[in-house]
Amino acid sequence: MTAGVIREATDADIPALVEIMNEVNPARPWTPQTLEHETHFLRTHPLGLHLAQWIVEDAGQPVATAAALQFAGMYHPDRYHAEVMVRPAAERRGIGTALAATLDAHLRARGAREVLAGAYEDQPHALAFLTTRGFTEAMRVWDNVLDLQGFDPAAWTGQGALPAGVRVLSYAQLEAELGPDAALRAYYDGFHEARADVPRTGDATELTLDDFRQRFDNPAMFPEGMLLAVTDAGEVVAVSELWRWTSDPRRLDTGLTGTRRAWRRRGLALALKLAAIRVALAHGAAEIWTGNATTNAPMLAINERLGFRPRPAFIEMKWGGV
């Protein structure tokens, strides 16, 4: 029984961290490029986001990792997100306990008042690990998956009609029409308002135009899959985003799907989701994944109607509060 050697991770450890993370959570795989991008974003963000990461080696082999970080999308100076990941072959050897103690000391030294962590509902040992450390359930999010091989586009002919004066354009098409600066601003304005009402466990941080612009540096960015409902005046009134899954070219991931408040209940979300499915099929994708809070009844109803089916829910757990 050994807890291995715990040390702070460096950029040279990114490939090993990706291996651990993907083995522990294969449903949400990373690549070294996507982890490098995320790490750079956190370190250089003007909010001064915190990021600390550790790696555990046993007999010279990387077997576990832990992280304490702050996200720009739901920032508070005393709120942190914590992760502990142990390879299955190294479980029940005290490694997770040792990493949790390292995280606890680090966060207490920083004066953390709220810590968010989580695990999937089919991982009772991980949920018990958090419960015994004072975490309680705050929110559940399903991974909903659409198997495109079973989707029949002909069954949706004539459905998903748009209101008069509204078109569906990809961001690439909008940029060609308006130019880069005007297209970015229109996309940002629509995204910003639609994002504000997405269920989350804390208040959304104001999204700056600079933050939004940096999304286009993400290796997973797919401009042809950023579907926008655009009025004749060039206003973006709804969005539904597809992102590439850099570790699997046959899989696409849905980012935000949302509608500006004055345009809701007019069928825009369904129209954009259908347009996104057509784009996915044209690019040879086999699956579309999306995450939905279990409380988001309107979006769950649309996804169920389209044929998305839920996987085990991710349970976000919280300690403390701000």
From TrEMBL:
InterPro entries reported for this sequence: Acyl_CoA_acyltransferase, Bact_Acetyltransf, GNAT_dom
Kindly give the Pfam families that the UniProt entry links to this protein. Answer: Acetyltransf_1 (PF00583)
The answer on whether this UniProt entry bears the keyword Transferase reads yes
Q: Where is the N-acetyltransferase domain?
A: 4-152, 182-322
GO terms, molecular function: acyltransferase activity, transferring groups other than amino-acyl groups
Signal sequence segment: none
* UniProtKB keywords: Acyltransferase, Transferase
**Would the keyword Acyltransferase be found if you checked this record's keyword annotation?**
yes
CDD domains (UniProt xref): NAT_SF
Lineage top rank: taxon:
Bacteria
Which PANTHER family does the record match to this protein? AMINOALKYLPHOSPHONATE N-ACETYLTRANSFERASE-RELATED-RELATED, GCN5-RELATED N-ACETYLTRANSFERASE
The name under which this protein is listed is: GNAT superfamily N-acetyltransferase
Q: What species is given as this protein's source?
A: Deinococcus metalli
Which taxonomic lineage is given here?
A: Bacteria, Thermotogati, Deinococcota, Deinococci, Deinococcales
